Amino acid sequence: MTKTKNLKNSNRKWLISYMFLHFVIFAIAAAVVNPTFDDISSLLAKLKSPSGLIPLIIFPLSVVLEGLIHSNRKAVLVFWRIRNPLPGCRAFSKIAPNDPRIDMAAIKKIYPDGLPSDPKEQNAAWYKLYKQYEDKMIVNDAHRFFLLTRDLAALTVVLIPFCVVAHLFWQTPAATIGYHVLVLTVVAALICLSAQSYGKRLVENVFAEAIT
Questions:
Q1: Residue 34 pLDDT class (50, 70, 90 cuts)
Q2: Radius of gyration for the chain, computed over Cα atoms and rounded to the nearest angstrom
Q3: Which run of H or E residues covers position 100?
Q4: Long-range pairs for 172-176 at CB < 8 Å and ≥24 separation?
Q5: Are 159 and 20 in contact (CB under 8 A)?
Q6: Rounded distance, CA 151 to CA 56, Å?
Protein backbone atom coordinates (compact mmCIF):
# COMPACT_ATOMS: atom_id res chain seq x y z
CA MET A 1 0.00 0.00 0.00
CA THR A 2 1.37 3.45 -0.95
CA LYS A 3 2.12 6.23 1.51
CA THR A 4 -0.76 8.32 0.15
CA LYS A 5 -3.24 5.48 0.57
CA ASN A 6 -2.09 4.91 4.13
CA LEU A 7 -2.62 8.59 4.92
CA LYS A 8 -6.03 8.62 3.24
CA ASN A 9 -7.11 5.54 5.15
CA SER A 10 -6.04 7.14 8.43
CA ASN A 11 -8.12 10.21 7.51
CA ARG A 12 -11.23 8.19 6.66
CA LYS A 13 -12.54 8.25 10.23
CA TRP A 14 -12.48 12.05 10.16
CA LEU A 15 -14.46 12.11 6.93
CA ILE A 16 -17.09 9.79 8.40
CA SER A 17 -17.29 11.90 11.56
CA TYR A 18 -17.61 15.03 9.43
CA MET A 19 -20.42 13.43 7.42
CA PHE A 20 -22.22 12.46 10.64
CA LEU A 21 -21.89 16.04 11.91
CA HIS A 22 -23.60 17.31 8.77
CA PHE A 23 -26.33 14.73 9.18
CA VAL A 24 -27.02 16.17 12.64
CA ILE A 25 -27.01 19.69 11.18
CA PHE A 26 -29.43 18.53 8.50
CA ALA A 27 -31.68 17.03 11.18
CA ILE A 28 -31.73 20.29 13.10
CA ALA A 29 -32.30 22.34 9.95
CA ALA A 30 -35.16 20.05 8.92
CA ALA A 31 -36.68 20.42 12.40
CA VAL A 32 -36.76 16.67 13.02
CA VAL A 33 -35.22 17.01 16.47
CA ASN A 34 -37.94 18.13 18.85
CA PRO A 35 -38.64 17.01 22.43
CA THR A 36 -42.45 16.95 22.20
CA PHE A 37 -44.18 13.59 21.96
CA ASP A 38 -46.34 14.65 19.02
CA ASP A 39 -43.35 15.64 16.95
CA ILE A 40 -41.44 12.50 17.90
CA SER A 41 -44.42 10.40 16.83
CA SER A 42 -44.57 12.30 13.56
CA LEU A 43 -40.83 11.79 13.11
CA LEU A 44 -41.08 8.04 13.66
CA ALA A 45 -43.97 7.84 11.21
CA LYS A 46 -41.94 9.73 8.62
CA LEU A 47 -38.92 7.50 9.12
CA LYS A 48 -41.05 4.46 8.37
CA SER A 49 -42.04 5.88 4.98
CA PRO A 50 -39.76 5.40 1.92
CA SER A 51 -39.25 9.15 1.47
CA GLY A 52 -38.27 9.53 5.11
CA LEU A 53 -35.50 6.97 4.77
CA ILE A 54 -33.84 8.78 1.85
CA PRO A 55 -31.75 11.16 4.04
CA LEU A 56 -30.48 8.20 6.08
CA ILE A 57 -29.17 6.62 2.88
CA ILE A 58 -27.99 9.78 1.11
CA PHE A 59 -25.43 10.91 3.68
CA PRO A 60 -23.38 7.65 3.81
CA LEU A 61 -23.47 7.62 0.00
CA SER A 62 -21.83 11.04 -0.03
CA VAL A 63 -18.70 9.56 1.59
CA VAL A 64 -18.64 6.81 -1.04
CA LEU A 65 -19.01 9.33 -3.87
CA GLU A 66 -16.24 11.52 -2.45
CA GLY A 67 -13.92 8.51 -2.54
CA LEU A 68 -14.70 8.00 -6.24
CA ILE A 69 -13.66 11.51 -7.25
CA HIS A 70 -10.25 11.45 -8.93
CA SER A 71 -7.44 13.30 -7.16
CA ASN A 72 -6.94 15.58 -10.19
CA ARG A 73 -10.55 16.75 -9.98
CA LYS A 74 -10.15 17.36 -6.27
CA ALA A 75 -7.07 19.46 -7.00
CA VAL A 76 -9.06 21.58 -9.47
CA LEU A 77 -11.76 22.02 -6.85
CA VAL A 78 -9.37 22.93 -4.03
CA PHE A 79 -6.92 25.18 -5.86
CA TRP A 80 -9.52 26.83 -8.14
CA ARG A 81 -7.35 26.20 -11.20
CA ILE A 82 -8.38 24.18 -14.24
CA ARG A 83 -4.89 23.74 -15.66
CA ASN A 84 -1.96 22.54 -13.57
CA PRO A 85 -3.74 22.98 -10.23
CA LEU A 86 -1.26 21.14 -7.99
CA PRO A 87 1.09 23.37 -5.96
CA GLY A 88 4.04 21.32 -7.22
CA CYS A 89 3.43 22.92 -10.62
CA ARG A 90 4.60 26.23 -9.08
CA ALA A 91 7.19 24.73 -6.74
CA PHE A 92 10.32 26.25 -8.29
CA SER A 93 8.89 29.39 -9.87
CA LYS A 94 6.74 30.79 -7.03
CA ILE A 95 6.58 28.75 -3.84
CA ALA A 96 10.27 28.13 -3.10
CA PRO A 97 11.46 31.69 -3.91
CA ASN A 98 8.82 33.14 -1.56
CA ASP A 99 9.78 30.98 1.43
CA PRO A 100 12.47 32.70 3.55
CA ARG A 101 13.64 29.29 4.84
CA ILE A 102 14.68 28.14 1.39
CA ASP A 103 18.04 29.07 -0.10
CA MET A 104 17.49 29.04 -3.85
CA ALA A 105 21.24 28.77 -4.43
CA ALA A 106 21.19 25.45 -2.53
CA ILE A 107 18.20 24.30 -4.59
CA LYS A 108 20.04 25.13 -7.81
CA LYS A 109 22.92 22.93 -6.72
CA ILE A 110 20.51 19.98 -6.64
CA TYR A 111 19.60 20.76 -10.27
CA PRO A 112 22.87 21.71 -11.98
CA ASP A 113 21.18 21.60 -15.40
CA GLY A 114 18.79 24.35 -14.37
CA LEU A 115 15.52 24.58 -12.52
CA PRO A 116 12.43 23.43 -14.40
CA SER A 117 10.09 26.18 -15.58
CA ASP A 118 7.24 24.28 -17.25
CA PRO A 119 4.47 23.61 -14.69
CA LYS A 120 4.30 19.88 -15.40
CA GLU A 121 8.08 19.55 -15.28
CA GLN A 122 8.15 21.48 -12.01
CA ASN A 123 5.62 19.12 -10.48
CA ALA A 124 7.48 16.04 -11.73
CA ALA A 125 10.83 17.29 -10.43
CA TRP A 126 9.36 18.29 -7.08
CA TYR A 127 7.58 14.93 -6.73
CA LYS A 128 10.86 13.06 -7.20
CA LEU A 129 12.32 15.20 -4.44
CA TYR A 130 9.29 14.56 -2.26
CA LYS A 131 9.73 10.77 -2.56
CA GLN A 132 13.17 11.13 -0.96
CA TYR A 133 11.81 12.94 2.11
CA GLU A 134 8.23 11.66 2.42
CA ASP A 135 8.99 9.93 5.74
CA LYS A 136 10.26 13.09 7.41
CA MET A 137 7.86 14.27 10.11
CA ILE A 138 7.24 17.79 8.79
CA VAL A 139 6.66 16.44 5.29
CA ASN A 140 4.43 13.60 6.44
CA ASP A 141 2.32 15.88 8.66
CA ALA A 142 1.83 18.49 5.95
CA HIS A 143 0.89 15.76 3.47
CA ARG A 144 -1.61 14.20 5.87
CA PHE A 145 -3.34 17.49 6.63
CA PHE A 146 -3.37 18.44 2.96
CA LEU A 147 -5.08 15.18 2.02
CA LEU A 148 -7.54 15.54 4.90
CA THR A 149 -8.56 19.12 4.06
CA ARG A 150 -8.67 18.33 0.34
CA ASP A 151 -11.02 15.38 0.94
CA LEU A 152 -13.12 17.38 3.42
CA ALA A 153 -13.53 20.11 0.80
CA ALA A 154 -14.61 17.56 -1.82
CA LEU A 155 -17.01 15.93 0.64
CA THR A 156 -18.55 19.29 1.53
CA VAL A 157 -19.18 20.06 -2.14
CA VAL A 158 -20.73 16.62 -2.62
CA LEU A 159 -22.93 17.18 0.44
CA ILE A 160 -24.51 20.34 -1.02
CA PRO A 161 -26.74 18.66 -3.65
CA PHE A 162 -27.25 15.65 -1.36
CA CYS A 163 -28.55 17.93 1.40
CA VAL A 164 -30.88 19.71 -1.03
CA VAL A 165 -32.36 16.39 -2.15
CA ALA A 166 -32.73 15.23 1.47
CA HIS A 167 -34.44 18.51 2.42
CA LEU A 168 -36.86 18.16 -0.49
CA PHE A 169 -37.87 14.71 0.71
CA TRP A 170 -38.42 16.10 4.19
CA GLN A 171 -40.32 19.11 2.80
CA THR A 172 -38.03 21.60 4.51
CA PRO A 173 -38.97 25.26 3.95
CA ALA A 174 -37.13 26.86 1.01
CA ALA A 175 -35.56 29.57 3.18
CA THR A 176 -34.03 26.95 5.48
CA ILE A 177 -32.63 25.05 2.50
CA GLY A 178 -31.12 28.28 1.19
CA TYR A 179 -29.44 29.07 4.49
CA HIS A 180 -28.09 25.53 4.77
CA VAL A 181 -26.65 25.64 1.25
CA LEU A 182 -25.08 29.03 1.99
CA VAL A 183 -23.43 27.67 5.14
CA LEU A 184 -22.10 24.63 3.26
CA THR A 185 -20.74 26.85 0.49
CA VAL A 186 -18.90 29.08 2.97
CA VAL A 187 -17.54 26.05 4.83
CA ALA A 188 -16.35 24.51 1.55
CA ALA A 189 -14.54 27.74 0.60
CA LEU A 190 -12.83 27.97 4.00
CA ILE A 191 -11.70 24.35 3.85
CA CYS A 192 -10.36 24.91 0.33
CA LEU A 193 -8.28 27.83 1.59
CA SER A 194 -6.96 25.61 4.38
CA ALA A 195 -6.10 22.86 1.88
CA GLN A 196 -4.30 25.40 -0.31
CA SER A 197 -2.21 26.43 2.67
CA TYR A 198 -1.33 22.83 3.56
CA GLY A 199 -0.51 22.03 -0.07
CA LYS A 200 1.87 24.97 -0.25
CA ARG A 201 3.39 24.00 3.10
CA LEU A 202 3.99 20.47 1.83
CA VAL A 203 5.98 21.81 -1.11
CA GLU A 204 7.94 24.17 1.13
CA ASN A 205 8.74 21.50 3.71
CA VAL A 206 10.16 19.15 1.08
CA PHE A 207 12.51 21.88 -0.10
CA ALA A 208 13.43 22.75 3.49
CA GLU A 209 14.40 19.12 4.15
CA ALA A 210 16.30 18.88 0.86
CA ILE A 211 18.66 21.74 1.72
CA THR A 212 19.14 20.80 5.38
A1: very low
A2: 22
A3: none
A4: 172/29, 172/30, 172/31, 176/29, 176/30, 176/31
A5: no
A6: 21
d(CA 122, CA 91): 6
Residues 6+ apart with CB under 8 A from 81: 75
Q: CB burial class (10 A; 0-12, 13-18, 19+) of residue 136?
A: middle
Helices and strands in the chain: count of H runs, count of E runs: 8, 0
Crossing angle of helices 137-169 and 174-210, in 10° steps, is 170
Higher-scoring residue by pLDDT: 154, 6: 154
Per-residue pLDDT at 10: 72
Phi, psi (deg, nearest 5) at residue 204: -65, -40
What is the distance between the alpha carbons of residues 189 and 156, in angstroms, rounded to a whole number?
9
State the DSSP code for 136. Answer: S
Tell me how far apart the alpha carbons of residues 156 and 65 are, in angstroms, rounded to a whole number: 11
With cut-offs at 50, 70 and 90, classify the pLDDT of residue 84: very high
